[in-house]
Amino acid sequence: MEEIADEQPPPPPLNTPLLKNTELSDTLDFSKIFFKFEGNGPTGTQKDRISYAHVMNARDLGFSKIAVATCGNYGASLSYYANKARLSTYVLIPKDYSNSRSREIESYGSNVLLMPGKYEDSVEFLHRNAKSLGWYDASPGSEYSSLDLRAYSNIAKEIVEQLGHAPAYVAVPVGNGTTFAGIYLGFKKMQLNGDIDILPRMIASSTSSGNPIISSFSAGLRDLIELPPEAIIESYVNEPLVSYRSYDGQLALNGLYDTNGIAVPVSDHNMIRYAQIIRERIGINVLPASASALAAVSMGLSRMDKEEECVVVLTGRDNNGNSHSTF
Asked: How many H helices and E strands in the chain?
């Protein structure tokens, strides 16, 4: 491996804000809703947490090149941190993907490789070929993916520190299930250590157009099932969530069962609607996929105690400022 420059990227922001909105709580007839906003990082997404971890690990292992298969946000985040650390970066994006942050990724000096097939095909390409190419594979399901769970577990720790205790419910969007699984495992560790009295009921939101975690839980299955690739329907709105293979889906599914959780499929229309509600009521511009978590809370109210506290994790801001009024 090539010798790399001794450059230190800035760490991602920790203790991202926990916001309470009384007006929105009243609208949903839910007394205590809080929003954990992960958009304060340099690239506006929770991916900043894991990008920093992977870049530092790649440097520690002596890599000069790092790669990721991505649908956009992770590619932008990893490119930012890798650029600061003087690592060469390769970002694999499905060529038919419509919500790419390719220009931003290229502005950090990364190499964008447009790949045939779906997102999962790009991930599998990296899993097979990264080692022979001399690339550190930062994709979900790689040999280094345990870093993702550890980084995201800090979100649970921050929620407890900011509230002073564990909330009754925590809602998180799921695609691969990595963020959800990391947060769940963070709470689980605190419960086992005696740091919290209760384990929050986890609420998983995703697209109604195809996600293995939602499908498996809705069918009452304990073992995650992979969906047929032709069964998923991708759109500009649901692309961050839609998948036929969720790389940390089994861990997320385990978390749903362990916490007596709730899984809610959300349509593109409702993702857009709740992104608008968040923008108008809280003043935060988020991608519709991120807003699916609030939609899931609203749609799951009949299965929840509305007098308890609920934290909705908003996984990032919309860097393009799009209104998403059409899809």
From this structure: 11, 10
